[in-house]
Amino acid sequence: MQSTNTPNPLVGSWKLVSFQFESERSDKRFDAYDEHPEGFAIFTEARVLFLLTAGDRLATAPAGELFDVMMAYSGRYRIEGDRIITTVDSAWHPAWIGTEQTRVFKRDGDALSLMEADFLEFPKFPGQRVRATVVWRREV
C-alpha cells in the first residue's frame, strides 16, 4: 500500500476495456472471452476487487458455461514499484485463494493496464502457459 503521505493513484472504480491473452508459444494476442468484455476493478486504500466477464453472456446459458466466461477475485494489495501484488482471500476459482497475484501496472491518464509479470497456467487454458493483459478506464 502507499504511504499516507502519497495519494494512491489507483483508488477508485475502473471499467474494463479489454482482456487479452498471449501464449508463451506465440506472441499473438487473443481476446480472453470476446471483443467486448464487461467488468470492473474497484480499489480502496487496502483492498481490490476484480470482476471480468464476457460481454455476450446469455441469462439462459447453463451455469457451467457462465462460469467459463468470468473471473473474479479480491484481496488486500500492496504496490511495489510498477507491480500490484494482491493476496487473494476470495476468488471465483478456489485454487487462487491464499495465493499472491502479481501484475505489472502502467497508468496513462484515465487508462490503467495490468499485465501478468510471468507466463503461467490459467484455469481456462490447462496445459498451456499464458499471460493476460487487461486494460481499464477510470470511471468518472
CATH architecture: Beta Barrel
| Cα distance spanning the termini | 23 Å
Give the helices and strands as they follow along the chain: EEEEHEEEEEE
> Taking strands numbered 1, 2, ... along the chain, how are they ordered across the largest sheet?
1-3-4-5-6-7-8-10
Secondary structure: helix percent: under 10%
Strand content: over 45%
Sketch the major β-sheet. Answer: 8 strands, antiparallel, barrel
**pLDDT averaged over residues:** 91
Low-confidence stretches: none
Number of helices: 1
CATH class: Mainly Beta
- Say what the CATH topology is: Lipocalin
What's the total count of β strands?
10
Estimated radius of gyration: 15 Å
Structural class: mainly beta
The total domain count is: 1
Q: Which outline best applies?
A: globular
What topology does this entry show?
Blueprint: E1 12-23, E2 26-31, E3 38-43, E4 47-53, H1 63-68, E5 70-80, E6 83-91, E7 100-108, E8 111-116, E9 120-121, E10 129-138
Antiparallel strand pairs: 1-2, 1-3, 1-10, 3-4, 4-5, 5-6, 6-7, 7-8, 8-10, 9-10
